[in-house]
Structure formats: structure tokens, C-alpha cells
Amino acid sequence: MHNEDLGFNSLAVHAGKGDDAMLSAVSPIYQTSTFAFDDADHGSRCFSGEDKGYIYTRIGNPTIAELEEAVAKLEHGYGGVALSSGMAAVNTVYLTYLGQGKHLVAHNALYGPSRGIVESLYTRFGVTASFVDATDPANVEAAIRPETSLIYLETPANPTIGITDIAAVAAIAHKYGIPVCVDNTFCSPYLQNPLDLGADIVLHSMTKFINGHADIVAGMIVAKTKEHYNRLRPVMVNMGFNMDPHQAWLTRRGLKTLGIRIDRAQENAMKVAQFLEAHPKVSWVLYPGLSSHPQYELGRQQMRGPGAMISFELAGGLEAGKKMMNHVKLSLLAVSLGGIETLIQHPASMTHSKLSKEARLSGGITDGLIRLSVGIEDVDDIIADLEQALGYA
Ligand code: LCS
Question: Which residue's CA is the closest to the ligand 1 atom numbered 18?
Fold first, then answer.
């Protein structure tokens, strides 16, 4: 089978199958921590890299490798590095490119801990950071310093749904020789391929759309080149940020239906966004599929679809929002996103609560902002649920 000739959904189902004894098993799992060598010389050849044999699961495992290869193919990258969580992926990128005296330029609205860990931990090790509104690429250029060693974006951003022009930022970064990493969690490779737009590294919380079933936590980094891959992979291995084979097996299963799940969820999200925008109790809605989104045109160029994430605020602000969230019946009041269930949450008191209010507001995360991850239920049921909950707001 030549993977090069296959479409997205065919690759999502088949890519990454290794050439080994269990190939005839459609969905094998190697739940093992270690691998026996044929003899001592074989062992030493595996360690030197002369032989491609597996050694130890923290270093590599066929079930994990299948997932790494599949996501790397879907992201059009050189290689994938699977990790125990999305935060392990974020930290592997930070640890690889940041260090004493180095400077990070990042978008000002990121998943809370992706920004928080820089401000609370990396600064202790001599890293400095500028969080800027990267939806205007000129702000990124203005923040670059001689010691800037990484530009880090999330687009669309969690939870503001702001869209950054990846190609424009990559062109600026590469003038200065700085690598660009894009957190592609909100789109997944089904809707956006940052490496094709000039990014050097793409990462995912696979806890979200890629797995999609709210049953595991997982992360992935895909490097565009062998050089970046060879820098990133040892950090994962030696920090012990590795994935477990069972986690990889479940994620590989979830990946198989990524395309059809997103097709359904974003079809639902479009109708939900239109419903919210027309509702008298809603003051604003941000969704890449609505022409009211400030980067609507950029989203249409850069993304293959608007996705399933919506942010909105009620005219009654936070208090009204809480009443609404307390009365949903079908949707779940829960963090996380990108799964088959519709989830609603309040970033200022939940996912982004560890950031200072100043940091939240600088990124546009207002106290009244509510985030909705639209699932694959029947859209009439989702809208009826939100409508009855809005009745309490
Ligand atoms: N990047 C983004 C954009 C995320 O939304 C998250 C988690 C992460 C990285 C970290 O991934 P994890 O370690 O959780 O797999 N976002 C969450 C959220 O919005 N609610 O709960 C988790």
C-alpha cells in the first residue's frame, strides 16, 4: 500500500502499520515494558542504532510507533513523538528550545498551563517571555530579541478562538532563524496542517479531537525535519514523558474516526453558533464559521473548516453565565474539549484560573467568557438544551 496515494480518512484508518510478526492483527497492542535481544551483540547493535530493534518502551514501542507514524503522516511531518499528555508535549518543546538566557515569544491566549508554566517555573531557570497578540504578526516581530529561541502559537487559541496567520508569523520567525511551534489541538490535522504553512513543529493534546472519546490523556509532537525530531525525541525519552502502549492503542483507535467525528461536530457547531448569535441574552459569539469572527477570512484560507469550538458571553456577564451552566442537562459542565460529548465550561474560574486576572484580560479572556465544545449528538437536542438553560440566565 502506498500511503502517499491515500486520502485523509484512509490514512487515519491505516497509516503507521509496522513491518512485524503481528502485522496480520488488525489492531495489535504490545503491552510490554521491555524487549528481549537475540544475543548480547544484538543488544549492543540496538543501543548503537545499527539495528532498529526495540529496547525498552520509554524509548520506543511498536504500538506507540504506529500512532507516531500515523499522526506524523497526517501532519505532513518527518516524525512524531508521542507523550503522556498534551502538557508533556508542551514542556518537551519548551525544554528543547528554551534555557538559561533564552527568550520565548508566544501568543497571549494559550491553554492556561501552557502560559502559566512559563511564568511560574521556566522563569526560575533564567527564561524570559513576551506574550503578545500574535493575531497581528507585527506584534510578534516587535517582541523578537537577539536571544529569542522559540515562537509558540495556538490557533485557534484556547479559549478566545483568535486565529493567527501561521504563514506570516513563520516568515517573520525564519528571517531571524527562530523555530515556530503551533499547538494544533483545536483543529487537529483534519482541519489544519501548520507544517505546510511554514511552522517547524506542531503539537497536540490528543486528549481532545484526535482521540475524541474522553477516555485518555495523551500528547503528540510532530517535527517537520529530522533535525528538529532528533532534538525533541531524546527530551521525551530522558524526561520520562513517554506514552503507555494502552494509551497509544486507544488513541490510535480514536484517530480512525477523526474525520467523520469532526465533520459531524462542526456541522452541529455552525448551527449552535448561529443559534447563540441570534439569542437576545447573548452579547457576543466567536466562532470561525461566523462572518462576525474578526479573522473570518484568514480562518477560511488557513483552515479546512471552522471546527467545533465556540466562545460566547451573555449580556448578564458571569452571573448569568453561571446560571446557564448550572442548568444544562444534555451538555456536560466539564473541562476538556474535542470529544463526542458537548462540553461547556468557564475558563476564568476553571481552565485559566491559575493565570493572573491581568494575564487573562491581556489575552482577551474576560470573566464572562463561556467556552463550548460541540459534540456529535443530534443538533436539535444540543440547541434545545442550551435554550432551556438560557431560560435561567
Ligand atoms: N494545548 C491545548 C490547546 C489544550 O487545550 C490543552 C488542554 C493542552 C494543550 C494540554 O493537554 P493535556 O495535558 O490536558 O492533554 N486543554 C484543556 C482544556 O481546555 N480543558 O481541560 C484541558
Answer: 336
Residues framing ligand 1 (Cβ under 6 A): 85-87, 90, 111, 114, 154, 158, 183, 185, 205, 207, 217, 219, 335-337, 351
Query: Could you identify the atom of ligand 1 that is nearest to the CA of residue 218?
Result: 15
Mean pLDDT of 140-161: 97
Cβ contact 311:371 at 8 Å: yes
Residues 6+ apart with CB under 8 A from 368: 313, 314, 317, 318, 320, 321
Q: Whose CA is nearest to atom 21 of ligand 1?
A: 336
pLDDT tens-place string over residues 90-121: 999 999 999 999 999 999 999 999 999 999 99
Shortest-distance Cα residue to atom 15 of ligand 1: 86
User: Average of pLDDT values for 192-212?
Assistant: 98
Quote the pLDDT of residue 17: 80
Which residues pair with residue 83 across a beta bridge?
219
| Fold topology of 3-100+140-153+166-255 | Aspartate Aminotransferase; domain 2 (3.40.640)
Whether 375 contacts 328, CB under 8 Å: no
CATH topology for 258-390 is Aspartate Aminotransferase, domain 1 (3.90.1150)
Active site residues per annotation:
58, 111, 183, 208
- Residue 158 near residue 185, CB atoms below 8 Å: yes
